[in-house]
Design brief:
The chain is mainly β. The protein has one helix spanning 8-20; strands spanning 30-36, 42-48, 52-54, 57-70, 73-88, 91-104. The protein has one domain (8-104). The chain is elongated, with a radius of gyration of 15 Å.
């Protein structure tokens, strides 16, 4: 289980991050957002790695983590995706993604 970063909102988030990250400043992860539903039974958080640039292309690692309540206990899961970005008409666009890891606890 993980936050659906491939949704329209998620892709807009990646596009905005790519625009803001024209010059990588570190190799650390950047916290993006978190939230939960009304009764707090499901929560998520998203982190981004610094993009790796090669000319007009870049790759960004996205880690999404989700926690949810099942009966009286909490379960967590994480997904790691690599998003491929390409600079098109002076704007960064997502052109592909690849799931690289799933962790369920």
């Amino acid at each position: 289980m993980g936050y659906n970063i491939s949704s329209e909102k998620g892709i807009a988030l990646i596009n905005a991050f790519a625009e803001a990250a024209a010059v990588p400043i570190s190799d650390e992860l950047t916290y993006v957002c978190s939230g939960s539903n009304e009764d707090d039974s499901v929560g998520y958080s998203v982190w981004l790695g610094q993009p790796r640039f090669e000319g007009d292309s870049a790759v960004v690692k996205v880690i999404s983590s989700c926690r949810y309540r099942r009966r009286d206990s909490w379960l967590t899961g994480s997904q790691v995706h690599e998003y491929s970005l390409r600079r098109i008409d002076d704007s960064w666009r997502v052109v592909g993604r690849r799931l690289t890891q799933i962790v369920n606890e």
